[in-house]
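A quick aside before the break. I want you to see a complete sequence-to-structure record at least once, exactly as it would be stored in a machine-readable document. Don't worry about memorizing anything.
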Amino acid sequence: MTESDLAAAVKDALGIDAATFHRRAAEEADVLIEGLAEGVFDNPQAIVGFEYEFYAVDEETSALRRVPRRLLEYIGFEKELGLHNAEMSTSPQPLNADGLLAQEAEIKSRLATALDCTRPEGITLVSDGLWTIPPEGETAKDYLTDYVEDGGIRIATNMSDSVRYHAMANAEGETTPAQRIDAPNVSLVSETVMLESLITSIQPHYQVPHAADLPDYFNYALRIAGPLLAMGANSPFFPPDLYDEVSDERILDDAWMANRIPVFESVLNESPEGKVRFPHDLSSVEEAADRVVADDTIVPMPAGTSDRFDDEFAHFRLKHGTYWRWVRPVFDGASRSAANARIEFRPIGAQPTVRDSVAFLAIFAGLLESLPRREHPVVGLDWNDARENFYTAMRDGLAADLSWITTNGEETTDYETIYADLFDHARDGLKLRGLSDTEVEKYLWPLRHRARHGRSPAEWRHAKVKERVENGEALETAIQEAQREYIGHQRETLLEGGFADWDGR
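That is the input. The structure line, written in tokens, reads:
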């Protein structure tokens, strides 16, 4: 799509009547709710899926690189927000030993093929929560904020040709993205949503067997979000040129372990209680659909038609595309038989290796198998406490003080008790799906290792940077050299190793 064609498409999107769009979405939600009542979205068993985002860097310098669109199409990856981004989505599989193995095998197979294709171009793909080395000869600020105007439409120079994202930057309704970063010692304003392209994530999906039970699974997912985020923290630093004029020591002391969270929230939220947030408990599956309809619409998008089953609620699905919650329900399906209700878990930044990434899929799925079935009392943890767990984990990683209710109904803040209970039930859930003891430990061990040693990837990197600064390096150099060290270790372990292998390196 040429720049002028993109600007024209953005204008067309901005011309769609918001009231009509909202009415169509509400009407389609009624159709969806009828399907839920009829059991259309039920499945014979739990099913899992996965989304995996990467960014591209120069093979030699580790500086950020734009991925040629032809190359992205060739390797079978999807374009994401920035020109440096690439994303893969796995095929849904039953939650059992073969299904998890198939998830891991598909990720490895497609990623290995992609790396073989990008390396001749001098590009490698990195699995990480937030990039810190800008492209050669550019500052991160310039790369993220550069834009042109075409007929009064702002087009971000380094953003992919997604009409929706460019339209957000040009929307003038009551709900618009803030387009700013607000994080410790970082304050940056842009004219587009390109700032969000700083971050990348993994997103495990869990399809519930019976759609009517989705609220039970959802409410448990909110309770485990904090402890899982603490183990998955992987974004303690920003590109150095984005920091305010403060001391290196203050930046180190104030650093949050999962800065991916405040980036996503502050870029896209126009108010503290914005579209990106920790959601409230659900009381019914119908309420889940109603919340999507009631959510503010930034840009109504044209709804295409096809023979897909879920195009019967195409406007609803488009509205759901900007229903940004850290845990969110999803309703879709290419055919009536493939229709499903699932939970998408969005807090975790991209991880150091495939093994670590699949471990999060396994622990998330295992917990959602066990906790509702065992009627674990942690669902009674006050919602405010669950929310506080989430944001405390964002700030402090595995050093976070968390609240929990054990399987015996006892309230606790004891670190070892919380994680022992968490792993016991993840193990139970995977065993319920037929995994052997050996298979269960294979998937859970990478995260057991983190919990046992209190060391997430964020803590690993923070320690590396702090050590370099204490040895006399400037913070900019320390952050970038620690980033190169991260990428170097990942090059050796991405497909066949684990983050635990990095200990002592």
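Two observations worth writing down. The radius of gyration is 22 Å. The chain is about 45% helix and 10% strand. We'll return to this after the break.
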